[in-house]
Structures are given as structure tokens and as C-alpha cells.
Amino acid sequence: MNELIRRISELPVDGRQSQTALTVARGTMRLLLSHGFTCVSELPLPSGRRADLVGIGRSGEIWIVEIKSSVADFRADQKWMDYRMHCDRLFFATTVEVPCEIFPKDTGLIVADGFGGELVCEAPEHRLPAPTRKVMTLRIAQCAALRLQSLIDPAGPYGNEM
User: Fewest CB within a 10 Å sphere: which of 2, 37, 50, 72?
Assistant: First the structure.
């Protein structure tokens, strides 16, 4: 186990996210864990989009969290609307510096830092159809397992599968 932890700490930084976004993601994942959700970051969705965080709860409920590190980040990216068809609840997560008023009222809101987060506004529920839930659950499980496998076998043939 110690070897696995060492390898995780040596992984290269993805490079797609700012340091602020990475900090918000860490705090958000800690908050979601306290609510019974485990997360996969940067999960490719069946629609071709990539969700910042996807959490799956003990009962199989699926939440997607879109991280926005600034007002400009929010205004520049409107693809989050496509995420709703892949989750039971859709949230935004941001820093305390970003005004909460800019986020849509029909989504949830999390304010986070590197140590944790707070659920400021609960997201409305829109239950996934069973076939979509199955596809998403399998996608989360396969992605998480493949990422663990790649830590054990870093020279393996994993490519862009993660």
C-alpha cells in the first residue's frame, strides 16, 4: 500500500486545470466523501464531454460537479448544460472569491478550498433512467479501476483510456 501511495504522489500533473481548480476539486472531493460519495475526476462521458468530478453515492446516486475557478471561467464554458443527462444532480464548485449569484439557480453550489467545502445550495434531483445509470456506473467503475491498475503497472498499455 505504501508503494501505491508513493506512486500516486509521483504522478505528473494533468495540466488542464489551474492550481485554483485543483484546490477546489480537492476540497470538493473531501466534502462529497463526507456525504457518502466517492469521486472520479476528469471522467469522459458518453456524450464525448469530460466531467470535472463525478461522484457516486452508496445508493448509486450520481452527482456531477463542474468546477469554475473564476467568473471568466464560468462565462467561457457553457458545455456544462450537457452534463445534466448523465447525473441525478448537477453542481458547480468554486472558491469563496467567485460571486455565487452568477451560477444557475437550477444547479447546486459548493464553495471549497483545499481543505474542504460547504454545500451552499442543494441541487434539484432529476433521476437518471435505469439504462443511463448503468452506463454511468460502469464507466465510473472502469475508469477508477483502470487508474489504479496503471499505478501498479505504469508501463502498461493504458493510453487515453483514463
Answer: 2
Q: How many CB atoms neighbour CB 27 within 10 A?
A: 21
Measuring CA to CA, how many Å separate 78 from each of 20, 86, 101, 104, 155? 19, 16, 16, 11, 36
* Residue 41 grid coordinates: 475526476
The Cα–Cα gap between 69 and 66 comes to 10
Residue 48: CA count within 13 A, CB half-sphere: 1
Give the bridge partners for 113, in sequence order: 116
* DSSP type of residue 97: T
Q: Which residues pair with 54 in a beta bridge?
A: 40, 64
| CA 29 – CA 110 distance, rounded (Å) | 11
Task: For 66-76, write each residue's pLDDT tens digit.
Answer: 999 999 999 99
